[in-house]
Specification:
The chain is mostly helical and 462 residues long. The chain has one domain: Growth Hormone, Chain: A. The chain has 19 helices and no strands.
Length: 462
């Protein structure tokens, strides 16, 4: 019997456009905030890295806090859409503020300005917006195939936006005259684009009524239980699949952050900063192609588990090829291996939201409680914690290696560190994710739980 469908094509595309909004923030910060702060503002890379790491302490609390608030929200717009809509206005303001650090401030005040704006963005507004956006996957449809499609479409927009940002930003800054004023202008343009696309995404879908989201066979005879933030946290940590997904998502974002620090590798090792855009194409075009086929492949492979594991095995081997090609000094071979790795990694990117929805179902099947908003906190937590750790780690490693911002040449120790950061670290992170995926078969666990519930229901009826 075919599953009921809930969405039209324009609902899915409209929803997916929300990742344009998310990635004009994320791509700009992850790829360029460090080099803006070190080479334009003149900050120390190690201090910036430390501030980013400290900021993540606030993020770890805010993710589950906002996820719980979304679960408890009841409004005409639904649970998640109000948070997604209103949260982005704060994102836009904070993004611009990060690139508006006054030049006449003292060094300490400049660091404080950055820390406050960065923390408000990540721990507050971006958290509310991103968790709500991700949670919509479980709130607008109960059809798993549609959830996979939504995930694939949103990440097509995500990688397309990331590719565009990495390709055009250096040229845009130069066109606007270079320097701090040019960076500020670019940030304002990106913030306006984000506001428009986020609004489009919010109003492209409607959330299902709570009664339609319930599983009648499991919820029959149960009253809705109220639970606290602590209760929600306990539900998450008891779900081993949530912990695995959370760890994978964090590693995926650290991986992306280390690649985004490629601006340093391109500038000082390959001697051409514009190659960042070329490598971005080698990553994102294959990724988008892979995402196009992910829903079909999930159906043909009978689920997400084997497809994700096989894909990331290919992705890890591809990144190993990048390491070898890098030491051989072959840019074309690096690009080929980069593309192969991206193809392998695309299924997990495409079905991640559906995987989290399946993980949320596991909590519901084991506890009878729906915590979709809290469950999707792992996406925001992973994006911010992983991206923040990756950027902070880059700052620390650059400072440790003796990097001098804006210098035409760097020391041998710095050059060696750039090879480690751009070649070895992404391959190691991919390997760790692959190992986690060997255990992440939540679909099978849910099937077994449903069978148990069905047998219990039959026994009770007799």
């Amino acid at each position: 019997m075919n599953e009921k469908t809930y969405l039209k094509w324009y609902n899915k595309v409209g929803y997916g456009s929300g990742d344009i909004a998310g990635n004009v923030v994320y791509a700009l910060l992850s790829a360029f905030v460090m080099i803006f702060l070190t080479d334009t503002v003149g900050m120390n890379a190690g201090i910036v890295g430390t501030l980013i790491a400290v900021s993540k302490l606030f993020d770890g609390v805010s993710d589950i806090f906002f996820g719980s608030l979304i679960d408890k929200t009841h409004s005409k717009m639904g649970k998640a859409r109000p948070w997604m809509f209103y949260g982005y206005f704060g994102c836009a303001v904070c993004l611009v503020a990060i690139f508006c650090i006054p030049a006449d401030l003292g060094a300490t005040a400049q660091y404080a300005w950055f820390f406050i704006a960065y923390t408000l963005l990540n721990a507050g507004f971006y958290t509310a917006n991103n968790i709500a956006y991700s949670a919509l996957t479980a709130l607008v449809t109960k059809n798993n195939h549609e959830r996979v499609q939504m995930g694939s479409i949103r990440f097509m927009f995500a990688f397309g936006t990331s590719m565009l940002i990495q390709t055009i930003t250096v040229g845009l800054v130069a066109r606007f005259g270079g320097g701090a004023a040019a960076w500020r202008t670019v940030a304002i343009i990106y913030a306006i684009v984000g506001l428009a696309t986020n609004t489009l995404s919010v109003f492209s879908v409607k959330e299902l009524p709570p009664e339609e989201l319930e599983d009648d066979e499991i919820s029959a005879g149960q009253e809705e239980e109220k639970y606290s933030l602590i209760d929600a946290f306990r539900l998450l940590v008891r779900n081993k699949y949530y912990l695995m997904i959370c760890a994978s998502y964090i590693l995926m974002q650290i991986y992306s952050a280390t690649l985004n620090m490629g601006i340093y590798y391109m500038t000082y090792v390959l001697k051409n900063a514009n190659l960042l855009g070329v490598f971005s194409w080698a990553i994102n075009i294959p990724m988008i192609v892979g995402l196009l086929f992910t829903p079909t492949l999930v159906a043909k492979w009978g689920g997400m588990y084997r497809l994700n594991l096989t894909g990331y095995t290919v992705g890890t081997l591809g990144r190993l090829g990048v390491v070898i090609a890098g030491y051989l000094g072959s840019v074309p071979l690096m690009l080929v291996c980069t593309a192969a790795a991206a193809i392998g990694m695309s299924p997990l990117q495409g079905d991640m939201n559906a995987l989290i929805a399946t993980c949320s179902e596991y909590t519901y099947l084991t506890s009878g409680k729906r915590v979709d908003g809290t469950m999707y906190s792992c996406t925001s937590l992973g994006t911010k914690l992983g991206g923040g750790i990756g950027t902070a780690l880059a700052g620390w490693l650059l400072a440790f290696s003796g990097y001098v911002g804006g210098a035409p040449e760097q020391s041998a120790s710095c050059m060696n560190m750039l090879h480690i950061m751009y070649l070895w670290m992404p391959m190691i992170f991919n390997l760790l994710i692959t190992l986690i995926l060997t255990r992440l078969n939540v679909e099978k666990a849910n099937e077994e739980l449903r069978a148990q519930h069905h047998r219990s229901g039959q026994s009770a009826a007799q």
